[in-house]
């Protein structure tokens, strides 16, 4: 379903209207735009600065299209894709309810500061409601102050169970690639 959003408290002009719709990888325009935007993010210092690997570029669309837990959207200004959000369904064991994790949010560098990120976060919040989720989660690099401000504007706060225990940190362990 396509939705129109208001950016920064003002309606965009008709030449600049923003539409956010669920990513449909069966549409070649969606698949190509999604891959281009994700690579744009990967080339940014906050995305690692190197771009997507050849393997990722060749396999991501097919893999995500077949992954039931994937929920994503693209933001279009006219016919141009200007942003995306990738979310994955998870589960809160403490609440005994589903949750939705915002894994990636991308706004093209030339379009930042125009409310596109807020529109994508609003889409994710609506989708989480449709899925019966108890909350949305996301991770952000500690030096990505612009993104943190946008998330706080949308109502996100650091994850804390007890202030004496501190806030949660995201950790990872990279596994060796299969050699089959």
TrEMBL record:
List GO molecular-function terms, semicolon-separated.
N-acetyltransferase activity
Q: What are the entry keywords? A: Acyltransferase, Transferase
> Superkingdom of this entry's organism?
Bacteria
Which residue intervals define the domain N-acetyltransferase in the entry? 20-176
Pfam families xref list: Acetyltransf_1
UniProt key word Acyltransferase: yes
- Protein name per its UniProtKB record: GNAT family N-acetyltransferase
The source organism is: Dechloromonas agitata
